[in-house]
Amino acid sequence: MSARDCFVSVVAPLREDGAILSAFVDETAAVLKASFANHELVLVDDGSQDDTPERVGALLERHPCLRYIRLSRSFGTEAAIASGLDSTIGDFVVVMTPDTDPPDLIPEMVDLARSGIGTVYGVRLDRRGDPFWLRAGAAAFYFLCARLLGVRLPKNSTHFRVLSRKTVNAVTRIKDRNRYLRVLTASVGYSARAVPYQPLARHGRPRHKTFRESLGLAVNLVVTQSTHPLRLVSWLGLGASLVNLVYLLYVGAVYLLKSKVAEGWTTLSLQVGGMFFLVFLILSVMAEYLGRLMEETGERPLYHVQEERSSNVLLADPERRNVVAESEAAPPSRLEKAG
Hints:
Largest sheet: 8 strands, mixed
Number of helices: 11
CATH architecture of the largest domain: Alpha-Beta Complex
């Protein structure tokens, strides 16, 4: 199968992107049409409150192979990407952010993926414009992923990536509510290759997560993906128990060897205070894990779709299906179900 004949799907999560949507779709559709006979562009609206739905209507009339999925509310970028991946039919799936990712790189990245690479991911050349706390937090996050999660994330990697069908099938089977595409694609273990690029800024300036959002994401990932913090607290509890045992032996020795023992109010107060501190620390960590466990094992779906609209889908070969060999064991695609 030649590069032009492979089916390429593009998933683009939207969030208040109405102002740049037309330019992004026009540019991406032109690249896909020039490079691939079979393609689709899937726009996933993560509960935008601007004029995104109205602008999509005109784009559906102008562009074939365009689909629009609107979630019932904002579930977050990761859930929006998940809903797009769940519905794609491509042999290779491109995930890109409309504000920052250049469509011109899609053919090059797909060519790399066709050589047998599971994930081709974009790496931003620098972090110019990022506040200091975000740069420091990113460095700490990469360190934690390597030490606590056992996943070595490439520094400055982005959501911009091409996934083989095998990788898509593996990622979509993971139903964690606290998702992070960069961690998921790295954790499945398939081969990966980096493509450096300079992000765009279609909105005029980069949009960053707030400090609270970034911290919450890091905490969620560490708690849901690793037992290291719980084990650390367990070791602290064991160490504190040994210290208390030594202290009790010391008190017994003093009692046996000294004829007169002063009232140990201060020591007792410190001991009781330290004990309660440790107990509350352990309870707080266990409560956090239990809360995440309840969240992960709940029956609620990851997202809800409010509406879905499509333009005409053109196939170079109407009888063609998703035919890459690594997809044969996968669940039937949307086209197979329809056929």
